[in-house]
Amino acid sequence: MTAAATKAKGRKGAVASGPNAQKPAKAGDRRRSVPLSLPTPEKADLAIAFLETLKIPEGKMAGQPLRLAEFQRQFVRGALADGVMVGVLSIGRGNSKTATSAGLALGHLVGKWDDQPKREILFCARNRDQSKTAFAFLVGFIEGLPEDEQERFIIRRGSKLEVEYTGNGGGLARCIAADGKSILGGAPTLAIMDERAAWEREKGDNLENAILSGLGKRDGRALIISTSAPDDANTFSRWLDEPPPGTYVQEHRPAFGLPADDLESLLQANPGATEGIGSTPEWLVAQAKRAIARGGSALSSFRNLNRNERVSTEDRSVLVTVDEWLGAECAPDDLPPREGPCILGVDLGGSRSMSAAAFYWPDTGRLEAIGTFPTSPSLADRGAADGVSGRYVEMQERGELSVMGDATVPPGPWLAEIVRKLDGIQPACIVGDRFRHAEFIEAMEKAGLARVPFIWRGFGWKDGSEDIERFRRALFDGEVKVSPSLLLRSAFSDAIVLLDPANNAKLAKARSLGRIDAAAASLLAVAQGQRMKAAPTRKARLQWA
């Protein structure tokens, strides 16, 4: 059986994909699904019934019977469906994803729905201390069982964190860190990968590959749970965006660009808040307001961890934060007019890379941007190679990205096509990289723009530091207005600055596969527009005959 892999970025609700996805529980829920002939598998019924015999081990409701919320039941049914090998859950922090997984681990350990002998369960995390969280929940659930049942468990808390079960064929649950070599040769029947988005890339992928190869020996399953990763290139994001066959995906991520304290979207990322699980709605709104007031890393972390948004938590070196950029976005109907001189900023791409252009009208603050890739490889293949899934295809559908040429974008025809988008407006000047001087001269002549002034700027410490400061000042002062653009959002999310000992800044990529061309073009255009506005106006002098 296969799971559908339709991309669903930036829309509301939960996403479920896999062979047993159910109908939406609430309006706005999202699913990527292939329906199964049996909507409620027997394994899921047994698991849900077992979980609700347990007692909550800690927190404000400690000692009370465990009652599953609807989103938890949905995940259990999907992850334990026939034909599913991997269940993936992305949800905001504090929504009991680790506790629910630990409860499932206990049910599997005692053989409630799988009685094969010598069952093996792995709690996997970035390091041993993080894996102790799920282990602690498992031990807490065991301590709530009847005493005669507790006697069948052997708990080891020394150098190895293990729980051994001696009844019903026996089983062993143990904690491991993100080192793939530690489980080579193993044959787990259940693996729980906790906070997968936070794992180190190389070690985490090695551990994951070792686990998945071992699961096939005994028809094992994996539960991959985490809050959202900071970017599309993260392996956890790839599980959500491109689930392979036999994968069930459930993602609770609100639409991008909403205010951090928007209650409806907060509850989409934290469905347990209305059912007594984790934080209350009032607490979430209060924390959102505090994060907005503090800004910077506090706000980015809140969006990533509590709103479950795919937002980078880096703040010390980013060009602008996501909220700073969102402050410049406005509805297309509210976009300022194309009035006054127009500055064209250009980042000319090399072989097989993106070329980008930005139009900026400093008198009104209007900013527009467009990017272009060569036709080979296709946008879908390029997106897969760059780790952004179908983002490039979506940009093309939105009219923000085009294709031209074969393996390279021809500079002359491309620049001519870019200027045609101005509908007859002649650029006051073109701003570009000094390093590409010869190519720009040739391109402008072929595009019929030889008479347009060209301003050379470098991307090093000298010119780069000034341009970055002017761009930031214009953005913060509300002198940049742009309609929502996936191209620009993507570019600025990958744009960072490097600082020299004198605190001069220059633009750089956050990751090697990042595409910041549109951000670079926008930076050049806006900075030049601010220089033009700051230049003193020359007055005509009268001269007596």
Automatic annotation (TrEMBL):
Protein name: Terminase large subunit domain-containing protein
PANTHER family documented for this protein: PROTEIN YMFN (PTHR41287:SF1), PTHR41287
Signal peptide: none
Top-rank lineage group of the source organism: Bacteria
Domain Terminase large subunit-like ATPase: 88-229
Region of interest (Disordered), ranges: 1-38
Pfam families hit by this protein: TerL_ATPase
